[in-house]
Automatic annotation (TrEMBL):
PROSITE patterns: DHAK (PS51481), DHAL (PS51480). Residues 362-561 form the DhaL domain. Gene3D superfamilies: 1.25.40.340, Dihydroxyacetone kinase, domain 1 (3.40.50.10440), Dihydroxyacetone kinase, domain 2 (3.30.1180.20). It holds the Pfam family Dak1. It comes from the Bacteria. It comes from Devosia limi DSM 17137. Residues 7-330 form the DhaK domain. GO terms for biological process: glycerol catabolic process. This is Dihydroxyacetone kinase. Keywords: ATP-binding, Kinase, Nucleotide-binding, Transferase. GO terms for cellular component: cytosol. GO terms for molecular function: ATP binding; glycerone kinase activity.
Length: 568
């Protein structure tokens, strides 16, 4: 287990110290793990205090929601362990006055007992304190009575509503009423792709097969209510949203807020896909989505997965969600587009396909096909080379490029210039990363040399090839010796030129270019890279040929084999 922690025994305190250090307006109690909103006013002048807490490991909850407009204090227990009665009582007494306090508690036995007893003691000592229990986990609808359901991510929405009500100066009874109405209305359900690891334990709480997931889990590393085969994101989201709608009795035209929550290790790219489908599914069911919040709000340490919460809205609840807050973890206003706007993509292709067909059109097309065929055949080799010194996508990129070349219409090859321009457009769109732009700029530059030439001589093709190499060097800044595709391109251009100047036959001159490219690609294995991703490896890349240079040698050799003695 690798964790960026120090001593697990001091983990919670150090987390709270970090939050206090980096967030103005907060303070820590000296002997308890309680984070409070710093307030210099006398207790008699303070509004109703809103406190929450529980076991740690749910960051940014609960400490991340301490701030004007949300929580007044957060009481942190050890990881997945309820804080003590004394810690809760100390938190209440540190921030609350005669107007009282509201404790927002997730529905777990330890939290109910410790927060409940602290509330009784605070009330007896002159601070009227009420408990609001959140039991929003709809996954347990067929397993336990409603009052025994777990409290999970919907708790954050209760924090927001209660905090807004308190900040507006409402009395304790009304703050409690709004918080309880929210807790009773919200429904949540989660999905886990894997387990989390409690630092003090050092191993995952359960194991899953490569194609297994858990449906309907809590936030403490426990298993879900069902283990199923992995499904697409849309299928999982549909199941979760449909279950919440069924359990909460939501009907068409109902206004709702949706909270898409990451469980700790789900990257934003995946959460966005979940949010996209949650919005679409709710709309398919006739719901009117007023707000959608997406991010990590209440995690389960490093668990991969998500939960979705849905809250039926009233004007009062929507106003509370929109009310300002200084709590840093509430960092999204939730507003969404009325509908997805799709606009026409401007034309980016520069290919003119109305040129008269030249006599070399068939040969040019055949050469392009030969290149495509060989690049597809060599995909494993290119992928292997790139995976050792790059990100491993070169083989797939070359295949996409090859398929794009094959898809071009016949009239794209009517002239040398139209062929270069059409292939440039195709590769630019098909190949991601750096290869696409490099090939495109080279071909565009080559087309500028061949323009207005219905036919091209060997000298014309050399001039176009040399101009292409110049363009690649100018765009990327690479030179021979930098361990890039230029290590094959430039030697090929030089050898081709030298042989033609010596009076060699065109086919023989191109043979020399092909061999020079291969030699240049071979030499890259002895070079320390200075450009591109391989440069991050330094000498560790030695012994591995540069994939880009090898690709150049491959397609030049494909041209040589296709044209044979036809290079004139």
């Amino acid at each position: 287990m690798k964790k960026l922690i120090n001593d697990p025994r001091h983990l919670v305190r150090e987390v709270l110290e970090g939050i206090a250090d980096t967030t103005p307006g907060l303070a820590l109690l000296d002997t308890e793990n309680v984070l409070i909103r710093w307030d210099e006013s006398v207790p008699d002048q303070r509004p109703v205090a809103v406190l929450s807490g529980g076991g740690s490991g749910h960051e940014p909850g609960h400490a991340g929601y301490v701030g004007t407009g949300m929580l007044t204090a957060a009481i942190a227990g050890d990881v997945f362990t309820s804080p003590s009665v004394d810690a809760v009582l100390a938190g209440i007494k540190a921030v609350a006055g005669p107007r009282g306090a509201v404790l927002v508690v997730k529905n777990y036995t330890g939290d109910r007992l410790n927060f409940g007893l602290a509330a009784e003691m605070a009330t007896a000592q002159g601070i009227p304190t009420e408990i609001v229990v959140v039991a929003d986990d709809v996954a347990l609808r067929d397993i336990v009575p409603r009052e025994r359901r777990r409290g999970i991510a919907g708790t954050v929405l209760v924090h927001k509503v209660a905090g807004s009500a308190a900040a507006s100066g409402l009395p304790l009874e009304q703050v409690v009423a709004q918080a309880r109405a929210t807790a009773q209305a919200v429904g949540t359900m989660g999905v886990a792709l894997g387990a989390c690891t409690v630092p003090a334990v050092g191993k995952p709480g359960f194991t899953l097969g490569e194609d297994e997931i858990e449906i309907g889990l809590g936030i403490h590393g426990e298993k879900g209510v069902e283990r199923v085969q992995m499904q697409s994101a849309d299928m999982l989201v549909d199941r979760v949203v449909d279950t919440i709608i069924l359990d909460k009795g939501l009907v068409a035209e109902q206004r709702v807020a949706i909270l898409v929550n990451g469980l700790g290790s789900t990257p934003p790219i995946e959460l966005t896909i979940v949010a996209r489908r949650a919005l679409a599914r709710a709309r398919e069911k006739g719901l009117v989505v007023e707000r959608l919040y997406s991010g990590v709000f209440l995690s389960a340490l490093d668990m991969p997965g998500f939960s979705i919460s849905m809250l039926p809205l009233t004007d009062t609840l929507l106003h509370a969600l929109d009310a300002p807050t200084e709590a840093r973890a509430w960092n999204c206003d939730g507003r969404i587009a009325h509908q997805r706007r799709i606009v026409a993509t401007p034309q980016t292709a520069s290919t003119e396909l109305n040129q008269p067909r030249g006599k070399d059109a068939h040969t040019i097309r055949a050469v392009a096909e030969a290149i495509a065929t060989e690049l597809i055949a060599q995909e494993p080799l290119l992928a292997h080379l790139d995976s050792q010194a790059g990100d491993g996508d070169l083989g797939a990129s070359m295949v996409r490029g090859a398929e794009a070349i094959r898809a071009l219409p016949d009239n794209a090859f009517n002239t040398p210039a139209s062929a270069c321009t059409a292939i440039a457009d195709a590769l630019r769109r098909a190949i991601a990363g750096s290869s696409g732009p490099f090939y495109a700029v080279g071909l565009v530059r080559a087309a500028s040399i061949l323009v207005d030439k219905a036919e091209a001589s060997s000298e014309d093709w050399l001039a176009a090839f040399t101009a292409a190499v110049d363009a690649v060097e100018e765009l990327g800044g690479a030179r021979v010796g930098n361990r890039t595709m230029v290590d094959a391109l430039r030697p090929a251009a030089d050898a081709w030129r030298i042989e033609l100047e010596r009076g060699a036959q065109p086919a023989a001159a191109f043979d020399a270019a092909t061999m020079a490219a291969q030699d240049g690609a071979d030499l890259t294995a002895s070079m320390a890279p200075s450009l591109g991703r391989a440069s991050y490896l330094g000498d560790r890349a030695k012994g591995i040929k540069d994939g880009g240079a090898v690709a150049v040698a491959i397609w030049l050799n494909a041209i040589r084999e296709q044209i044979g003695g036809k290079a004139d």
